């Protein structure tokens, strides 16, 4: 039986034929088609697949297998995507070189190649810095040369909130299954992924019990009259509160796609779903919550919650909570 070996590279030189396990790979000296030829090919391929030791490939693999690797599915997906970018560029870099202070300049030059997309550049830098921090904490390297470094993307999201005009335009153009998602975000300040997983069983005795995946904690949120009315008149179509047009739970990608289409139809391009969290901060403050209480409910850092209030609620924009659904 003839066995096809993938990637064999054949070279003819001076009347002789030479076979290599792959282009640029080791030469196979056994007779083609013989068991010895197949064995040498398999050994070469096995060696090729082995990760080099004491390099960034090794450290990244250890990080992904550790308890410090992010738990959230969405965050894991992003981390894996950016770790692949790091591996492609620096995977074989020895750890001794990675902790050399001169490597910082090399890493910054790499980040600069992505400056046309500053958020991508910053995320890639953050992921690399996290891997090096992990290596330092575990004693694999002595220095994290990516500590600090600043950011290329300087957008101030705390200055972005949904106004009554945004809300009314969205309601007018979005399909009805997205209306409740908007209202839930406005009145709870929770992250998109956590809201999509929210079940009807989490709504009891006038309270929502939300599990915040990022902080790995459960918070209990009192439900005001406006949100309660929305929940009470929403039919139960699945275990989850939020469902798509066919009554099935949303997937993250499906929801983001439909939300983006609705915003495009409404002409909303200056705020995002994430900015609904900041809007909720202003509503909670108007309802009398302290900054610490707001942060504990929404999952914001204290300084971020305070920055949102400084930019809006405390700056004279106390009316941002008014909408067609009432006031906070």
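^ structure tokens above, recovered residues below v
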């Amino acid at each position: 039986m003839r066995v096809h070996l993938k990637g064999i590279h054949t070279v003819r030189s001076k009347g002789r034929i030479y076979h290599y396990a792959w282009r640029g790979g080791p030469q196979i000296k056994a007779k083609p088609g013989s068991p010895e030829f197949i064995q040498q090919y398999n050994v070469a391929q096995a060696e090729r697949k082995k990760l080099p030791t004491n390099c960034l490939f090794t450290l990244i693999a250890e990080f992904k297998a550790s308890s410090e690797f992010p738990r959230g599915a969405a965050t894991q997906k992003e981390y894996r995507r950016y770790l692949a970018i790091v591996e492609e560029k620096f995977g074989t870099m020895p750890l001794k070189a990675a902790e050399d202070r001169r490597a910082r300049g090399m890493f910054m030059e790499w980040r600069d190649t992505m400056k046309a997309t500053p958020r991508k550049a910053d995320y890639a830098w953050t992921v690399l810095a996290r891997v090096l921090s992990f290596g330092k904490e575990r004693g694999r390297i002595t220095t994290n040369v990516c500590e600090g470094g600043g950011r290329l993307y300087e957008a101030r999201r705390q200055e972005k909130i949904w106004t009554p005009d945004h809300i009314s335009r969205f309601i007018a153009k979005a399909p009805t299954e997205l209306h409740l998602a908007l209202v839930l975000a406005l009145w709870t300040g929770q992250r998109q992924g956590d809201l999509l997983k929210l079940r009807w069983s989490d709504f009891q005795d006038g309270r929502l019990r939300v599990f915040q995946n990022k902080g790995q904690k459960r918070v209990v949120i009192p439900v005001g009259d406006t949100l309660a009315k929305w929940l009470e008149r929403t039919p139960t179509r699945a275990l989850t509160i939020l469902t798509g047009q066919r009554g099935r739970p949303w997937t993250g990608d499906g929801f983001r796609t439909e939300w983006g289409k609705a915003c495009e139809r409404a002409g909303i391009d200056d705020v995002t779903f994430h900015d609904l969290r900041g809007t909720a901060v202003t509503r909670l403050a108007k309802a009398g919550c302290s900054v610490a209480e707001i942060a504990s409910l929404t999952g914001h850092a204290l300084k971020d919650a305070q920055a949102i209030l400084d930019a809006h609620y405390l700056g004279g924009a106390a009316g941002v909570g008014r909408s067609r659904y009432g006031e906070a």
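The first strand starts at residue 9 and ends at 13.
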